[in-house]
TrEMBL record:
PROSITE patterns: ABC_TRANSPORTER_1 (PS00211), ABC_TRANSPORTER_2 (PS50893). It holds the Pfam family oligo_HPY. This is Peptide ABC transporter ATP-binding protein. One of its GO terms (biological process) is peptide transport. It comes from the Bacteria. SUPFAM superfamilies: P-loop containing nucleoside triphosphate hydrolases (SSF52540). Belongs to the ABC transporter superfamily. The keyword Ribonucleoprotein does not apply. Keywords: ATP-binding, Nucleotide-binding, Transport. Residues 11-253 form the ABC transporter domain. The keyword Transmembrane does not apply. It comes from Streptomyces termitum. One of its GO terms (molecular function) is ATP binding.
């Protein structure tokens, strides 16, 4: 991997509990790096903290602890610094219909970012910037879409408009939260291909937040698997998805049709983030521990917490006592 464009170290985010209950530890000590021109997939089931982590990396949520750096500089939380940062790092949400104002034309939706960030351009220069962003997002000829409204577009076209709205500011990083979850299967591949093309042509970095390991396989250079506020396995996507070490990653992979494995049904629901169990936070649902295959480290799984896993570079790792002991 080249230099780290975005890095997080020891990031923790907690939300106040209700009626005197303990705070909810949504992100509970995460180290993560995204290199220049790299696509990283952040994978996990609903409620694991991946969207909170993504919002924190963008400066939308201030961490209770830890640091976030962009291009080697720690993120500052003044209004001026955050505004400058958000021009360089843009968010793409999963629901394009909710992201677009139904009363704004496509032109207005894409030009809005330029106006918010005070990018003063003449009318002709603004029009050229909007047209260029729409063209890069795959809407050609772009002028044909200028006066259309969101309801006049297909789901895939609306998502391209949202991506164009990010691209018009010429960011270095895009954080895409479930970017194809609301799209038909026929359109999903087109949007994923677009993200790959933007990486190749513009050197754009991306953090793709998803629950779908199949999507990670198709688009990512590296994957970080998240469970209950922590990254539990990370490494190059092909290495992790062909030979997963953590039982949680194995369970997620087992439900993919192409895996050929017997689907693993995890017991119960993820624990309450306000009451994270001791030891390995996955041990109460771990299929390997339940089967007796991890008998040699069972006590450690239930009592010894695991250190924070560094998710960066070409190294791979798994926060698992059984994997560390050579479990297969």
């Amino acid at each position: 991997m080249t230099r780290a464009l975005l890095s997080a170290s020891g990031v923790r985010v907690a939300f106040p509990g209700r009626r005197g209950s303990p705070p909810s530890r949504a992100v509970d000590g995460v180290d993560l790096e995204i290199g220049a021109g790299e696509i990283v997939a952040l994978v996990g089931e609903s409620g694991c903290g991946k969207t909170t982590l993504a919002r924190t990396l963008l400066g939308l949520v201030r961490p209770a602890a830890g640091t976030i750096s962009f291009a080697g500089e720690p993120l500052a939380y003044t209004s001026r610094a955050l505004k400058a940062y958000r021009r360089r790092a843009q968010l793409v949400l999963q629901d394009p219909s909710g992201s677009l104002n139904p009363r704004h034309t496509v032109y207005e939706a894409v030009a809005e970012g330029l106006r918010i960030h005070g990018v003063h351009r003449s009318g002709a220069a603004e029009r050229e910037a909007v047209a260029g962003a729409l063209a890069r997002a795959g809407l050609r000829p772009p002028e044909r879409f200028f006066l259309r409204y969101p309801h006049e577009l297909s789901g895939g076209q609306r998502q391209r408009v949202v991506i164009a709205g990010a691209l018009v500011l010429e960011p270095e990083l895009i954080v895409a939260d479930e970017p194809v979850a609301s799209l038909d299967a026929s359109v999903r591949g087109e949007i994923l291909a677009l993200l790959l093309r933007l990486r190749d042509e513009l050197g754009l970095s991306a953090l793709v937040v998803t629950h779908d390991l199949g999507l990670a396989w198709n688009i990512a250079d590296r994957v970080a698997v998240m469970y209950l506020g922590r990254v539990v396995e990370t490494g190059p996507v092909e290495t992790v998805l062909t030979a997963p070490r953590h039982p949680y990653t194995r369970a997620l992979l087992s439900v993919l049709p192409e895996s050929g494995a017997e689907p693993v049904v995890l017991a119960g629901e993820p624990p309450d983030p306000a009451r994270i169990p001791g030891g390995c936070r996955f041990h109460a649902r771990c299929q390997v521990l339940a089967s007796g295959a991890a008998a040699g480290v069972a006590d450690r799984c239930r009592t010894e917490p695991l250190p924070v896993l560094r998710a960066g570079g070409e190294e791979r790792g798994a926060a698992c006592h059984w994997a560390a002991a050579g479990g297969r």
